[in-house]
Amino acid sequence: MVLAGPTAVGKGTVASYVREHYPDVWLSVSATTRPPRPGEEDGRHYFFVDEPEFDRLERTGQLLESATVHGRARYGTPRGPVEQALLQGRPTMLEIDLQGARQVRQAMPEALFVFLAPPSWEELVQRLVGRGTESEAERATRLETARTELAAVSEFDVTIVNDDVARAAEHLVSLMVDPRAKD
To answer: Whole-angstrom Cα distance, residue 15 to residue 150?
Structure first.
């Protein structure tokens, strides 16, 4: 399963809920060149790498997808752990951005693509501002990107509105068990 959606929609929060309540679900850990936010741990939330290491991972085909997000940091999904989880038959979820989801669709079209949507534009803006992790300029860039990301909802198999983290996470997990549970 590929989970994507606009910035500040709560992808990380929903993924954390799944991680805590559904230990059988394997969640990918992305590599990124951005610095850690408060409370983030290397290897758990992200693999924090420098630009030369990210270049090496891309050059050697070790990333399933990669993208530069918001014109700044680079993100990518390490290929090996995803393939290993799938070979083991584990329910597998990638929490990635729109660019990455498009690349994964090319590489793994059989995956289920889920778009996590905000209850409203106003709520999305509130969540981004409430995080307090970006400067005013970064917030403006992220909101501009979010408008583009929201317009891509039709590219996904399922849309889940994140108006309640537990409900959204439960719906995600139910889709892993039965992809027909789209409503």
So the answer is: 19
Residues in contact with 119: Cβ distance below 8 Å, sequence separation at least 6, in sequence order: 161, 162, 163
> For residue 124, is pLDDT > 70?
yes
Percent helix, strand, coil in the chain, to 5, is 45, 20, 35
Reference 176, options 50, 24, 21; nearest CA is 24
- The CATH number given to whatever domain includes residue 29 is 3.40.50.300
Tokens of 52: 């030369």
Q: Alpha carbon of 111 to those of 89, 142, 174: distances in Å?
A: 14, 27, 15
pLDDT band at 78 (very low <50, low <70, confident <90, very high): very high
Residue 141, pLDDT above cutoff 90:
no
What are the helix (H) ranges across 96-135?
A: 98-107, 121-131
Token pair for 92: 């597998």
Residue 182 belongs to a domain: no
Q: Is residue 183 part of a domain?
A: no
For residue 10, the Cα-to-chain-centroid distance in whole angstroms is: 9
User: Measured in whole angstroms, how far is the alpha carbon of residue 14 from the centre of its chain?
Assistant: 10
Burial class (CB in 10 A: 0-12, 13-18, 19+), 24: exposed
